[in-house]
Specification:
Shape of chain B: globular
Largest sheet of chain A: 2 strands, antiparallel
Structural class of chain B: mainly beta
Shape of chain A: globular
Low-confidence stretches of chain A: 12-16
Helix content of chain B: under 10%
Number of helices of chain A: 19
Largest interface: A-B, 97 and 90 residues
Oligomer: heterodimer
Strand content of chain B: over 45%
Strand order of the largest sheet of chain A: 1-5
Low-confidence stretches of chain B: 1-45, 567-584
Order of helices and strands of chain A: HHHHEHHHEEHHHEHEHEHEEHHHHHH
Helix content of chain A: 40-55%
Distance between the termini of chain A: 80 Å
Number of strands of chain B: 50
Largest sheet of chain B: 22 strands, antiparallel, barrel
């Protein structure tokens, strides 16, 4: 009967420990509780930059960068992947659109991350963090939230406002008015501009100052764009003036950086990998999202950006041509610049149209074809559309260890001083200060060696033309035209008849994207009204 | 009509000896004989009659013995013995459920020994029912046994293949035939939407499910029986693991006697059963021409890519399918030795199986040993073990069947130096050489060490019928995957991945049982208290940037970068076989704990009226912190052995008739550890070139989450007619699942995509029918047919409590859980047709979709439910013919009424860039196809090309010959069978593609590793028994 006693003791033991026996503590995952110390906040803030980067490095649909360019005045699709098709064949732009869904989802994820930080850092009784640290963290989160809502406002108009973290499922969202969205963006960015450090005062890591982290000029530049959209032109100009007069930035006027001794010009130097950051000599850089080759630096890129492949030419298809560094690696030419950009946009002598910035000529470079080697490549048939199309060099990059090069390993220049002048000119046109606007634009044209313009030329359309000249390949052209309400008119007048994949059926509905159908379905306890025309 | 042969017909009598169930019958027999001697000595005069009733080798208890013409009756005891008073010339009537009633005249004898013949052998069998065994006749639940000959005769690499098509209500599907892959099993339809719906698999009392063990760990040759518990009465004793059905596997155990040596060996030859041939050269060239015309491009050459020109000009083509396939060969050798003395019994076995795939690079091999011991330490204490070790190896860099189908026939396979050309269609870089995988290293193996022991104490002296059993078992499962892709496979930096995991599991069970007969009352009680724990740890790394290809994964520290990563993310989204958690990143640990209590009472009266009451209470760590973490799962069942009733005495053709009914509740714990806790994801980022770690939103938790529960009602009928020439059973069931744990999508506005929630209800109802007929029974020739049929109707009753369907998740109230929801195809737009009223953007050659909403355009609102993804009904038929030593068995399986997306038809925007199957046509202005779209149709709507995936398969034909005993005895051989088997001989289907059962992945879906269609195998084997 000893056995019975043993069994009994086993039973008692099992009963006795049952409470803790069934308790659960994860070994391997963080929870929002992580946010309560300074290191936790630091990691949460860093997570927001990651979230921003996945917008640029998104590759589930390779045509993602084309979505924002084709079917506008600057480009048309040549090798469409699929996601961009509704953005020139506008009749197929419907409520299940993949790009609209991606834009929406991405922005609200960033908003959720920001809301978690704001709620925790503003929680009464938070200890262990200095006031300036709290301000920096709170400022960064407000900036990111404003950044996300600004994109939502441009793309969708009035959207549901979420400003607190959620602890459970919620399915009764309603759209706020555009005015209240704008008010939130303005207040978030005003807060950020006040709380964020000057670019000279950003924190450091062991490799130097963290210019990739938010500074107050980022908030101000975004605020300027938001004010212009709200037609608060003088407030917008106040922001751009403050950036320009800060003395922290200056236009790149001369050669610099890692390619300074090779053929090129000052403008093209800015887009060479290794030159793009403030720490690398780019005096125009306001917000540069840094990338590293993930094969050599862990976490170097959050995805596989498709910019080079979308913008670059598919010259590798030409017999006698080899993929190389100076031609920017392997492009596949998913889109081509519009004829308006290539043949009508630039005055002669404009540096921004130089061979170093928009490539129009090729020489055979494959030594295994000695008969061709070194000869100029002639244009045949549809070569200028698909294979040897003229293209912006801003996305050139090449990894000799990965010639196929699925990803674009290059910094993303999200904000630079060139655009500050353009935003200022746009505000000044809005205010009717045409001479000031001409002066703002002439700063850029002088740098580019283009003839100066006069106040009589100053219209919104001229500013948009100048934005194309300066920011082609960089700006999200579709958002610019949606923001200014000029998408339909400019497409019809400047890019309505491309030889392949022409724009069809564009109407004013394209000034807003459809609210994703799935969101309407899933938001079962309230109605998310659809935008007109979808 | 010959009514002989009522006794059980073992196909191989020699083998049956070790196949028989493992009750210690021999021991009982020994005791019995002692008793008999004793009782004979005490034999009284006059009218006291002593007797004993047996059936075969075993004593038979509970036999009712009556004197004809008198009232009153006695029952035989555990030893089959009885005593009654009677006239010496009286006639005795012996009756017992499941046996033919026997009438014996005493003719002056004082003692009799009679042998009862089972009315239905199946009803007399003892079957495993979970925490114990029961006679088939006493079972009140829906429990199906896999036919023993299916287990012993079909050469299979895993046990589920033997179950396939043989048990009504169990569906087994092979979505891929990769060597070593295990099939998906579903019992009585799908209850759960997002949780695992597979049955709970228990081997010798210890769970396989939840330990990360694989059915591959169990050597099919070791298996004595497989029972499938289907209704709530049978499964409720497994509580939170019961709702998807339970499969109980029992391995063989030793019996006293001379050692029995069993040697089984077979060799099989595999080929892809059906090859979806790609286009040949001229057809490929024509397709390119048509593509260029239809997409309005200027064609500058006969083939799409410059590198194809040389072969094209030389008219040299490559058969890529032939290049990636080979003659598959499977060999399996197993040896077992069993035997023992009265007190110590053993069964030990070993197996080695090796499988070379029908696609190059794929292979599987395994080795395993088992030792099952039973020791009677004293007359009240028995201890034993069930211990096994299994090693599964899935190594090999594999050829890519998907890319083989995409290759141009003019593609260049080899470089001048004889190595594989990386891009056979250069400058087309989308498709690499399908054989490049053979240049990659892929090490992938798992081991299982499972040690289980028991101790059983009989309290016969203190409380008669009371037994205590302690089961304690622990398993240890390490798994490893290492890969390397180097320069020859076009990774110019060299990349290695490592993955190691280990799972530790223990289970301790205290089981108390009490079984007694009081007159005609039989009572049987089982009580359980158990604790279970599983701990899992995994780490996975990717290393990139090696100096050369020398060190590979053997030194990942020698690479430039080392990142915690998800292994296989570059190859496949689905985990490789045997490694269910291969998606883990970096390192990860989890712990799962469970506490359980269970009580069951079986009561029967006079063998006619049966009652089973069960309750189980489970506490599981995975449930939400706001809940009690405990769930209670009760069930009740009744049975009525109608054939035993006296009014049935005159109904001669009925040999067995039993009505069963059950109602009960089971659970599904449905979630992984920590599934209820809100968590963040950590991410890597760089700042100033330095790696920094960030956290972003991950999973939104739900602390109120509890188990899913299913209530099920079941009515069943077991029958045997004409002296068991016709036997079978019929079950009808209805089940409701509520509190369904759904990974429910929520608006992205929340910042999260989904949350786990107890919402929703589903319903399953179905019918199962099994019929076995012995059509012809002659001395030398017999023909038997076994038929099973099951139909299940599954529907979603509610999702979020508001009776609204969820279009986003494709869940529709009133429809099955899995449906195909897509545009309705009406044909193809032809030239001259005006699409402006229906689909204004359509061009000639585009698929024509119905405008269901009649709004003049095709939008998402025009999608409709086109079919269900689970079969409406399935069936199996086995015909077995015996002529002397020859046996021929033919098994046909059918799966009907399901629709699946057909990826073999979907080439998106790659129609012009790759080769396509010859069977997949395309529209041209000339052929005006109304089925195939034009090559310029890029499927921008994401249409899934659903097709009817029903099929009927000639699954297995086996011809075997069993040598007669007399020819073998001189060679000390006690049994010898040779056989030849053909698997997957022919398939009848309307499906266009590789195989309707396959889940064939598209390019970019990263599942190409499992693109391995059904194989046809021819197998030759020998089963030899020595004594």
């Amino acid at each position: 009967m000893k056995l019975l006693i043993y069994i009994f003791s086993v039973l008692v033991f099992l009963c006795g420990c049952k409470k803790s026996y069934l308790a659960e503590t994860p070994y391997s995952t963080y929870s929002p509780a992580t946010l309560t110390d300074s290191l936790g906040f630091e990691a949460a803030v860093d997570g927001m930059y990651y979230q921003v980067s996945i917008y640029y490095t998104y590759s589930n649909h390779q045509g993602w960068p084309s979505v924002w360019q084709v079917g506008t005045d600057v480009a048309f699709a040549t090798q469409p992947e699929g996601i961009e098709v509704p953005y020139y064949n506008y009749a197929t732009l419907i409520s299940t659109d993949a790009a609209a869904d991606e834009e929406w989802t991405w922005a609200y994820e960033l908003i959720s991350d920001a809301n978690n930080i704001i709620a925790n850092v503003e929680k009464p009784g938070l200890t262990g963090l200095g006031a300036s640290t709290v301000a920096d963290i709170d400022g960064e989160a407000h900036f990111m939230r404003g950044y996300a809502y600004e994109q939502l406002a441009i793309c969708f108009g009035g959207v549901p406002l979420v400003t607190q973290p959620l602890t459970g499922p919620k399915t009764n969202f309603v759209r706020a008015s555009l005015d209240s969205v704008n008010a939130l963006i303005a207040s978030d960015l005003q807060f950020a501009a006040g709380a964020l450090p000057d670019i000279t005062a950003v924190p450091s890591n062991s490799a130097g100052k963290l210019y990739g982290r938010a500074n107050k000029y980022m908030a101000m530049q975004l605020l300027a764009e938001c004010y212009i959209r709200m037609k608060e032109y003088s407030q917008a100009e106040a922001q751009t003036q403050a950036i320009l007069s800060s003395g922290r930035f200056s236009l790149v006027q001369s050669r610099y950086g890692v390619h300074a001794s090779q053929p090129g010009d000052a403008f093209s130097d800015m887009f060479v990998y290794g030159n793009q950051r403030r720490s690398q000599g780019n005096t125009e850089a306001i917000w540069v999202l840094e990338q590293q080759n993930p094969n050599t630096t862990a976490g170097g890129s959050s995805g596989s950006g498709q910019q080079r492949r979308n913008w670059g030419a598919a010259y590798y298809k030409e017999t006698g041509m080899a993929i190389c560094d100076s031609l920017g690696g392997r492009g596949i030419g998913r889109m081509r610049l519009s004829n308006w950009v290539l043949y009508n946009l630039y005055d002669s002598g404009d540096m921004r149209n130089s061979e170093w910035n928009i490539r129009r000529h090729y020489w055979y470079n494959d030594p295994t074809h000695p008969a061709l080697y070194g000869q100029p490549v002639p244009y045949n048939n549809s070569d200028t559309i698909y294979i040897l199309c003229p293209h912006t060099t801003k996305w050139y990059c090449f990894d000799p260890n990965d010639v196929f090069g699925y990803a674009t390993i290059k910094d993303y220049i999200i904000m630079r001083l060139g655009e500050t002048y353009l935003l200022q000119a746009e505000a000044q046109v809005g205010e009717g200060h045409l001479a000031d606007a001409a002066a703002s634009i002439n700063v850029l044209r002088t740098r580019a060696g283009a003839p100066a313009v006069s106040s009589s030329q100053m219209t919104l359309d001229f500013v948009l033309d100048e934005r194309a000249r300066e920011l082609i390949g960089e700006e999200n052209r579709r958002m610019t035209l949606m923001r200014t309400g000029t998408l339909v008119s400019r497409v019809m007048s400047l890019n309505s008849a491309s030889v392949v994949n022409p724009v069809t059926n564009i109407t004013s509905k394209a000034l807003l994207l459809p609210i994703p159908q799935n969101e309407i379905y899933l938001n079962k306890d309230a109605m998310l009204t659809q935008n007109p025309g979808y | 009509m010959a009514l002989a042969g009522l006794r059980y017909f073992a196909v191989n009598p020699a083998k049956r000896t070790i196949m028989r169930n493992c009750l210690p019958k021999e021991k009982v027999l020994a005791l019995l004989l002692l008793c008999l001697v004793f009782s004979t000595a005490l034999m009284a005069q006059h009218t006291t009659i002593h007797g004993r009733v047996v059936s075969g080798d075993s004593a038979l208890s509970n036999v009712t013995v009556m004197v004809r013409g008198a009232t009153g009756a006695v029952q035989t005891d555990d030893n089959g013995a009885f005593t009654l008073d009677a006239d010496l010339h009286a006639t005795l009537i012996f009756s017992r459920v499941g046996f033919q009633t026997l009438t014996v005249g005493l003719n002056g004898r004082h003692s009799v020994e009679v042998s009862l013949v089972p009315s239905n052998q199946q009803m007399a069998d003892v079957i495993v029912v979970g925490y114990g065994t029961q006679k088939r006749a006493d079972v009140t639940g829906a429990v199906s046994s896999v036919p023993k000959d299916r287990l012993s005769e079909l050469p299979v690499t895993n046990l589920f293949q033997a179950v396939e098509g043989s048990v009504a209500g169990v569906s087994v599907s092979n979505t891929s035939s990769v060597p070593g892959a295990t099939p998906n099993v579903l019992v009585r339809g799908q209850n759960s939407i997002t949780a695992n719906s597979g049955p709970y698999v228990v081997v010798d009392g210890f769970p396989l499910t939840g330990t990360n063990g694989s059915i591959n760990d169990i050597n099919p040759n070791d298996v004595a029986s497989v029972e499938v518990l289907k209704d709530a009465s049978a499964t409720a004793i497994y509580g939170t693991n019961g709702s998807n059905g339970v499969i109980l596997i029992t391995t063989k155990r030793g019996k006293p006697g001379k050692p029995v040596i069993q040697v089984n060996t077979y060799t099989g030859f595999d080929k892809l059963a059906h090859v979806l041939e790609p286009r040949d050269g001229p057809s490929y060239v024509q397709k390119y021409k048509d593509f260029m015309t239809e997409t309005k491009q200027v064609q500058t050459g006969p083939v799409p890519n410059q590198s194809e020109l040389a072969n094209y000009n030389a008219a040299k083509t490559t058969d890529w399918i032939k290049q990636v396939t080979q003659q598959g060969v499977t060999t399996d050798n197993s040896l077992s030795i069993s035997g023992g003395s009265k007190d110590v019994r053993y069964f030990i076995s070993g197996e080695y199986e090796k499988q070379k795939g029908a696609i190059k690079g794929y292979q599987y091999h395994r080795a395993g040993v088992r030792a099952n011991l039973d020791i009677d330490v004293t007359n009240f204490l028995t201890i034993g073990t069930s211990t096994y070790y299994a090693y599964n190896n899935y190594d090999g860099g594999q050829a890519n069947l998907l890319f083989a189908t995409a290759m141009s026939p003019y593609g260049v396979e080899y470089n001048p130096d004889g190595t594989y050309n990386i891009y056979p269609m250069y400058p087309e870089l989308l498709y690499t050489n399908p054989l490049l995988g053979l240049y990659t290293t892929n090490i992938n193996h798992t081991s299982t060490l499972s040690g289980n022991g028991y101790a059983e104490v009989k309290f016969g002296g203190v409380v008669k019928g009371l037994k205590y059993r302690l089961n304690a078992g622990s398993s240890y499962l390490p798994a490893a995957i290492y890969t390397y892709t180097g320069r020859d496979a076009y990774n110019l930096l060299g990349q290695a991945t490592t993955y190691n995991s280990e799972t530790n599991h223990y289970l301790v069970e205290n089981i108390l049982t009490y079984a007694r007969d009081f007159d005609k009352h039989h009572i049987d009680f089982t009580g359980l208290y158990s604790a279970e724990q599983r701990k899992y740890f995994v780490d996975a790394y990717t290393a990139t940037g090696f100096v050369n290809d020398l060190l590979t994964y053997n030194n990942i520290g020698a690479a430039a970068t080392l990142t915690p990563t998800s292994i296989y993310e570059q190859y496949a989204a689905t985990p490789p076989p045997g490694n269910p958690n291969a998606g883990a990143k970096g390192s990860y640990q989890s712990k799962y704990n469970k506490l359980s209590q269970m009580a069951r009472i079986n009561y029967s009266y006079n063998d006619r009226y049966l009652l089973t009451l069960t309750a189980r209470r489970d506490g599981s760590s995975v449930f939400g912190a706001n809940t009690s973490k405990y769930g209670l799962f009760p069930s009740a069942a009744v049975g009525w052995n109608i054939a035993q009733e006296s009014f049935m005495n005159n109904v001669r053709f009925v040999s067995n008739l039993k009505l069963r009914g059950s109602y009960g509740k089971t659970g599904n714990q449905a979630i992984d550890p920590y599934g209820t806790i809100t968590s963040d994801n950590s991410v890597q980022n760089t700042m100033n070139g330095l790696t920094t770690i960030g956290v972003i939103g991950g999973t939104l938790g739900n602390a109120d989450l509890h188990w899913e529960s299913t209530t099920q009602a079941n009515i069943g009928l077991d029958f045997g007619f004409f002296q068991s020439r016709i036997t079978g059973n019929l079950d009808v069931y209805h089940s409701n699942t509520s509190g369904l744990i759904l990974s429910r999508q929520i608006p992205s506005i929340t910042g999260y995509a989904s949350i786990l929630d107890n919402v929703g209800k589903t319903q399953n109802e179905g019918i199962e029918f099994t019929l076995t007929t012995r059509n012809i029974v002659l001395k030398d020739f017999r023909w038997e047919t076994m038929l099973n049929f099951s139909a299940n109707k599954n529907k979603i009753v509610d999702l979020y409590g508001n009776h609204k369907s969820d279009t986003g998740n494709v869940w529709f109230i009133g429809h099955p859980i899995g449906v195909v929801y897509d545009y309705m195809r009406q044909g193809v737009w032809q030239q001259g047709e005006d699409p402006s009223k229906q689909d204004p953007t359509a061009l000639p050659g585009d698929l024509k979709f119905a405008d269901i909403t009649n709004d003049g355009k095709v939008t998402a609102a025009d999608k409709t439910i086109l079919g269900q993804t689970s079969p409406k009904w399935t069936g199996g038929m086995t015909n077995t013919f015996h002529y002397r030593g020859f046996h021929l068995s033919v098994f046909i399986q059918t799966v009907q009424g399901l629709t699946k997306n057909d990826n073999d038809l979907n080439y998106v925007d790659e129609t012009g860039r790759r080769n396509t199957p010859a069977a997949v046509g395309y529209w041209t202005p000339a052929n005006k196809s109304n089925f195939w779209p034009a090559l310029s149709y890029f499927n921008t709507r994401g249409y899934g090309y659903p097709m009817n995936a029903s099929y009927t398969r000639l699954k297995n034909v086996t011809l075997s010959y069993t040598f007669p005993d007399k020819e073998l005895s001189t060679a000390h051989i006690s049994g010898l069978t040779i056989y030849a088997t053909a698997l997957n001989l022919y398939t009848w289907t309307k499906w266009i593609g590789w195989d309707p059962e396959d889940n064939y992945g598209m390019r970019g879906s990263t599942t190409w590793l499992s693109n391995y269609p059904e194989v046809r195998s021819i197998i030759f084997g020998v089963n030899l028994q020595l004594r």
